[in-house]
Specification:
Layout (H helix, E strand, L loop, with lengths): L7 H6 L11 E3 L2 E4 L11 E4 L6 E4 L5 E3 H8 L6 H12 L4 H4 L7 H4 L3 H20 L1 H9 L4 H5 L4 E3 L3 H10 L4 H7 L10 E7 L5 E8 L9 E3 L19 E3 L2 H9 L5 E3 L7 H9 L4 E6 L5 H17 L3 E6 L6 H8 L1 H10 L5 H21 L15 H7 L5 E8 L3 H16 L4 E6 L4 H13 L13 H19 L3 E4 L7 H14 L3 E6 L15 H16 L2 E5 L3 E3 L2 E3 L2 H6 L2 E8 L2 E7 L7 E9 L6 E3 L1
Parallel strand pairs: 10-11, 10-12, 12-13, 14-18, 14-21, 15-16, 15-17, 17-18
Antiparallel strand pairs: 1-2, 2-3, 3-4, 4-5, 6-7, 7-8, 8-9, 19-20, 21-22, 22-23, 23-24
Helix pairs in contact: 2-3, 11-14, 13-16, 14-15, 19-20, 21-22
Amino acid sequence: MLIDQEHADYMRTKAHPRQLGIPLSRWGRNLIACCPFHAPEETSLFFYDALGYWRYRCLQCGAEGDLVDFLMKSRFNGMDEQTARTEAFEFLGTLDKDLANNQDSEHPWVKEVGGEKSKVLECFVRYCHWAACKSPSSAKFLEARGWSIGQAQLYGLGYYSGDPEPFISYCMLSGIERHQISFYLDNLEAYHEPRITIPARNSKGFIHSVYGRLIDDNEKSHTYITYASGPTVIPFNIQPDSENPIIVQGFFDALTADLAGIPGVVSTMYQELNVNHLYKLKACGAEAFTVILRREEDRRNQELKIQKYLKLAEQMHMSLKSIVLPKDETVDTFVRKNGADKLLDLISKTEVDTIHSHRRSMLLQDIKENFDTAMACPPDQSVGYKLSTFPKLTKEIDGVQSGCFFVSSHPFGLKTFLLSSLTLDLIESNPNLKVIYVAYETPRRQIFDRLVSMLIGQSILTVRKQNTDNEINKKILEATRDLMGYVRNNRLEIWDDMPSLDFSDLLKTLSQELKDHPDLILVIDGIDHMKITDRPELPDIHEKRSSIMLDLYKALDIPIFLGGELIDSNMGLLGPRAYLRDSDAIYWLTEKDGVLNLSVDSRRLGSSRIYENNISIDTQSSRMKEA
């Protein structure tokens, strides 16, 4: 057993490491001291109360036990076990008359609101603590995260196999009935995958919930779940008397920082920071707080999020520091790589946020990130997405990069074949890329036929019925399977014409797509036919369309190709001036004497003419590539 049941009440309510009479230092939420069992000068002995009562563990020699065990081994080690135990309890004051006269008094769990729940949850945590010592899979998972079993037990981390029956038997021995388990651990039988268990306590030290983290990330179930329904506004790892808490996002972010000795690190458990979290922290004495965020792809959205936190801080009369970590970095990895002092130094050197300092801080971070990104790209590598059938174009524009590009042609119908050719080339050449193709001028079934015909190099009429040549039928079948594969793997979507376009709805849809697929390109064929419902302040329909596309581009920061009509004259390209004025580049395809010529002009990307080359077109499928 993990605790002497005869003295359980005493151990939970009265025994504290301060009674041992040894020098103690605060280390995160735990206490640390020199280990008397192997090296009196090495501070590797932790005192922790993750199981509801104080225990000790040395992370170097592995010595562990409760406070009575500590006294037996360190002070009374020359006596037999029973005598040493008696002496240890007497030393701690266990023969106190008040305790002896109140054996039947109400347990402190019951005095606490929801106290019976705490009893059940602490029993679950102790069981999972024991199970973690016996489970190779939990040890392997923790080791991959940089944790040993000994370190994990400092915070009550455990292992639950997904089978409730062994735990129920364990509870029977502890005096807990089955209906109490079902009532308080109300999600215990809803999830049957093996998980690492993480107890969450309130500021008084009582468990209010136990979370489960999947061991196998290939499982389709939720990564994090809670076995016991409880309040979600209590920050994880909250501690009393914390004036300057550090708010992070993940469980292991908070645990790793605490293990490194950084005080007051709490987690929002992947939730959005809200005013209720701050109320809880302020009740524990917080006067200021620091938010450390993982870098998001959408920098604009992250900046708006921090501005929201700044308003919350002003509302609560607290000061705020915000830190955005480098790309792909977390607090967990940052502390393991650089140490606790580096993180504390970063926090101390960060300015307190105001509206102006926040903007300046974000701008400085963006400038540095922009430089780091540029220097990380070798000279012989394209910045953007490559085009295998347009190699010279890829070289001249340094790959297809974020921008708003207008595509037109003379004759006008050629621009659709160019957009379809670019779409296929991008998907085939970039395995992680997704293209959303919006067809405003063509029925969706005709788009299917056109793409299949381009894949096999046959006429669009050929793919619309069975052919007398079985080899062609096989090619049609394979190309259709390829097209279905692109759709099934979420690498291609083809949208029909929309009755109208509402910018906010489209932005919301595409923002979610971008979150799921960071490599995203939007192709709109026939922007001249796009119906507009908002922006009434703009009288010109082309300005409305152009403004909406620019808003999308600025919000999403992805490549957007717009196919529409332009007219060539002696004065140059004519057409809706909004498109010409606002586009990053104009792709202009012309046919003269049977020769196709593609030019790309841009006043934003250097000289006006950045690319020009002859283009060949397949006589059967009309697929285009560089000549």
